[in-house]
Amino acid sequence: MQKTARSTRAANARAHGYRERLGPSLWILVAAAVAAPMAALVFTPVDATTALLIGAVVGVLVIVLLVAAAPVVAVRDAELRAGPAHIDVRHLGDPEVHVGDDARHARGAGLDPRSWHLIRGGIDGIVVIPLTDPDDPTTAWVISSRTPDRLAAAVRRAQATRSTPSR
Q1: What is the DSSP letter of 53?
Q2: pTM, whole model, 2 decimals?
């Protein structure tokens, strides 16, 4: 079989688990791009060319910073990473996937204040993963995901791999 970019990507995903960057939505990027004309307006009295250049640089810089600062959710090596936090999958229970009205409830009235949250606006899906560690005061991890089914499956797969003895 010929190696293609798609087959290589699929093999990497199987070997390395799950990875998703919770980047800003298109509308947030468009709203951030409004910083460009605002910065240009400030420098217009000085010089129109300089104002356009500074406006373009500010617009690109704001968008690049928003994308670069977006948190990453990953499941790899029997560990769940969500932004700056990480936890071994042996401390996690069965993940629950929420979309639509269930997700809105899980992010709002159903949100336990003792749980750890990585929630991003513009991302509908939510995965709630209860903690099984009795020494941890956190009750669950609540994580936004554009592909909540895949995230939950990756956590389950890592838990199964962790509990299966190696040969």
Answers
A1: H
A2: 0.77
pLDDT-derived band at 1, boundaries 50, 70, 90: very low
Asked if residues 91 and 83 have their Cβ atoms less than 8 Å apart, the reply is: no
Cβ atoms 96, 128 nearer than 8 A? yes
Measured over the CA atoms of residue 157, residue 119, residue 128 and residue 105, the dihedral's sign is negative
pLDDT digits (tens, 9 = 90+) for 81-134: 999 999 999 999 999 999 999 999 999 999 999 999 999 988 999 999 999 988
- Whole-angstrom distance, CA of residue 65 vs CA of residue 35: 13
Q: Quick one: which of 68, 80, 86, 90 has its CA closest to 22?
A: 68
Angle formed at CA 85 by CA 104 and CA 107, multiple of 5 degrees? 10
78 dihedral zone (left: phi>0; alpha: psi -120 to 50; beta)? left
Tell me the two tokens of residue 146: 């554009």
Tokens at 126, concatenated: 């939510």
Please give the structure tokens belonging to residue 19.
């990875």
CA pseudo-torsion sign 103, 114, 143, 89: negative
Angle at 52 between CA 48 and CA 56, to 5 degrees: 170
* CB-based contact 140:127 (threshold 8 Å): no
